[in-house]
Amino acid sequence: MYKSTKNEEKHIMGHGDFVGASIEEVSNSFAGIGSKDTRPKLLLHSCCGPCSTSVIERLAPDYSITVFYFNPCITDREEYQRRKDTQKSFIDEFNRTTPGLDTIKFVEGDYIPEEYLKKVEGLENEPEGGARCQVCFRQRLKETAHKAKEMEMDYFTTTLTVSPHKNYTLISNIAKELAEEIGIEFLDMDFKKKAGFQRSVQLAKEYGLYRQDYCGCDFSKRDRGFDE
Predict the structure, then answer these.
(1) Spatial separation of the C-alpha atoms in residues 88 and 62, rounded to whole Å
(2) What is the pLDDT of residues 129-158, one digit of tens each?
(3) Running DSSP on this structure, what letter comes out for residue 216?
(4) Torsion angle defined by CA atoms of residues 23, 25, 29 and 34, in that order, rounded to the nearest 10 degrees
(5) Is 18 helix (H, G, I), strand (E, B) or coil?
(6) How far apart are CA 116 and CA 111, in angstroms?
(7) Which of 26, 114, 176, 194 has its CA 20 to 30 A from that of 99?
(8) Buried/exposed 94-124: b ≥16 CB within 10 Å, e otherwise
(9) 35-92 tens-digit pLDDT
């Protein structure tokens, strides 16, 4: 059960047109759309605030979005909190500057880094993007699918595909498998397309968001050469 959007690019501005646009210009393009009770309800798993920026901007005209912050892979509690605060800060500011759209909501999942660490035992030395990351993707997407079903959402999706470092095909296949298993539709979009990643970098700067230098777990931090 999944919804492909390949032939459904019908947003107010084509997403590629957002690149280079100011926050005010985008806000003006959304003016007059108004809140619509008929918008499908979407649970958007977000890995962090910066990655969510261009994804939310792209989806907000067509969906009623709830951001689901579930990232047990961020094993450092202080870093986890900093990224969560950044996510909430962006949502608050986006809601303030786009009054013509449905309010973006925020839900936090359980912070369970110990469960993540159990799941990746024996995979500590896998390269980033390898088997350990597959386990991580599955854990986060499965919880998102279950939460979407629980909240009676129409779809779930994830910001993970906006990153050029993440394998869209792998993430999509895991999510579609889980959608079938759990009985909830997956909104299948490669958010890095149409300059989605470049737009997320631009928006993170414009909103003054903290942008991290590693994916989240201690292993990715180690592989990037940061001190533990």
Answers:
(1) 21
(2) 899 999 999 999 999 999 999 999 999 999
(3) S
(4) 50
(5) helix
(6) 10
(7) 194
(8) bbeebebbbebebeebebebeebbeebeeee
(9) 566 799 999 999 999 999 999 999 999 999 999 999 999 999 999 999 999 999 999 9
